[in-house]
Amino acid sequence: MAEYPTGIGTSDTESISLLGHDLAGELLGQISFGELAYWLATKRRPTPGQLRVFEAVLVSLADHGFTPTAIAARLTYYSAPDSLQGAIAAGLLGGGSRFLGVTEDTGLYLHGIVEGLGDTTGWTADRWDAAALAALSETRSQGGKIPGLGHPVHKNGDPRTPVIIRIAEDSGVKGPHLELFEAIGRVHPELLGRTLPLNGAGVAGAALADAGLPVDLLRGFALLARTAGLIGHLAEERENPIGPAVYAEVDRNAVYTPPSAS
Predict the structure, then answer these.
(1) pTM of this prediction?
(2) 70 in Cβ contact with 229 (< 8 Å)
(3) Distances in Å between the alpha carbon of 101 and those of 95, 116, 231?
(4) What is residue 262's predicted lDDT score, i.e. its pLDDT?
């Protein structure tokens, strides 16, 4: 008989087990949702410091106003108010290289560099700067993009970035990914000829990597956070809808240009 192993959860007629614990008797009311999300992804419980950083990052990514993801969710809800799940899914599907996906892109980029640095314990800021400059130079020479730099709104500095770094420091979780990310912030003007802010999605990726979360799952945590924001947008859409106005504005101003005859 085929077997399908899982260490996540199971249930029988009288109990539900999750991560090796009785859900009703041991977990309900005893752990936060953030702790459970971390535990599910890593199969280990976070330290208090890791949990604090993880939950701070989730809060930082929950919403950023009328982003394309929020607008997509609201318009989908206007089109199909009977399908709340469809509206949430529409918003989540918009998470990519420009919105939300930067968290994973930055984490993967930093991790790829950190893995090649060996033991960085005791490194000074100068040494981190040299490593960052070398990495950025290589990326540029290969025509690659440096994730985590720049923001369409916070051009003079993303307010989330210093706060998350401080929380990681205070929690004893700041590690090589954040150190490298800060170094990139210091040295990139020398290479690019202009100064760009370290954005909140990028610092989120660095912080989550230092908190011990799998770097190839970081986009999932960004989407987890944004789900809460999308639910908020849809709750607001029910009371004060903007979907009909957005649709009408585009429809009234659409310009039809027939394709050239072939």
Answers:
(1) 0.93
(2) yes
(3) 6, 24, 19
(4) 62
